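Sanity check

After download, print the first record. It should look like this:
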Amino acid sequence: MMSPSTRLSTRTDDGWSTTRFVVLGFGTAGYACADSLLQAGAEFVTVLDDRDTEALREKAQILETLGATIKLGPGSTAELPADVEIVVTSPGIPPHAPLLASAVERGIPVWSEIELAWRLRDPANAAPWLCVTGTNGKTTTVQMLTSILTAAGHRAVAAGNVGLPLLEAVMDPEPYDVIAVELSSYQLHFTDSMSAHSAAVLNIAPDHVDWHGSLDAYALAKGKIYENCQVACVYNVADPATERLVEDADVIEGCRAIGFTLGMPAISMVGLVEDLLVDRAFVEQRASSALELAGLKDITPAAPHNVANALAAAALARAFGVPATAVRDGLRVFRPDAHRIAHVADVAGVNYVDDSKATNPHAAQASLLAYEHVVWIAGGQAKGATFDELVIAAKDRLRGVVLLGQDKQVIAEALARHAPDVPTITVEATDTGAMQTVVGEATKLAQVGDTVLLAPGCASWDMFANYGARGDAFAEAVRRLGDH
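Expected structure tokens:
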């Protein structure tokens, strides 16, 4: 939270001062939006949130001293003020929420925090945006990209749905050279004027359908990242839906479609030649040759889906003009965040891996396919997802499965349909010691050379505070195995 004494300077626009804004939601994003509007010279800013906590009231006092009107508590969002001209919404609020539906019906523009950040950029000093979205891999790709950009000598930052809040990045008095922006489908839904330097959609799989209303609507929101793109629209050759989004986008003349693939790259793609990442998109002789960017040895871990992330990051970096040596150097020093296909330990010849961040079937499937023989630990809150496609793809790798959590039966039924011969153990316990039981059962199923993989395919909130706490519980249970 920025206090008045640390407020950042930014471009002011006479139009902001007289426009009447409503900010919907007063979490981290809502506070940042309201504060940024005030910094930009807006004099009529009203914040609405049905919650009323001591922490929110403390934040409200700060903004009220700067001229904002804050309305907290039940009923605060029941009605849109009659004189509102622009609504700025927080990312968690779905478009069918009554206040947003009312704004759309009345023809009042609705902006995401991303739309606001784009409009608040100082045109004279604005850093280009390299944007990434997708169902899985966004954070890792953006962090890889930032590492590559930094290795090339740029003042770069990861922002948006990861790292620094994007509003802070664009309003920093010392401008960045370039910003690597992670964007969720929530953020993109109400973003319309953004014009990324280059953008990537990593993959499209069922997720957040309840928020968007349908898979098509979810995909369309993802595709908005390509609108008005300037230099390169990066797509996943293995996921035709991402290429269709490029084909449907209205881009700046001269913007190119650039594919990334785990196979041999065609012209205007980056991909693999044996154990090398190569570029056939941003080299003059791409019709007949490819430029080496890095080796698989430079990527940690070199699981297929992580290599795909690296290729997408490399494509965006190359679109920005980064030399090949910086791609290699940036990937070589990069290490993913905790709970993303993280090696925990080898115990009695068995590899234990924590991919608690695999919170949907698409992510879990990618993780499973990275290992030859797997004892899979799965379950939690499935969020309406199905697991048939995952089980069909991974059944020949499964040594066994241990299930836990609220929707374990959904996975058990998919296994019964498509992999009935795979040993499956269901753990009913939900207390703090449940993970110890789960790991113990998985260890009984594992053979020397196998991987015991926590890739739940589900959210964690039924049993754990978050996916990190779930991964920590797994790692602690594995460590106790090693103590015996």
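If your output differs, re-run the checksum step. Summary of this record's structure: The radius of gyration is 24 Å.
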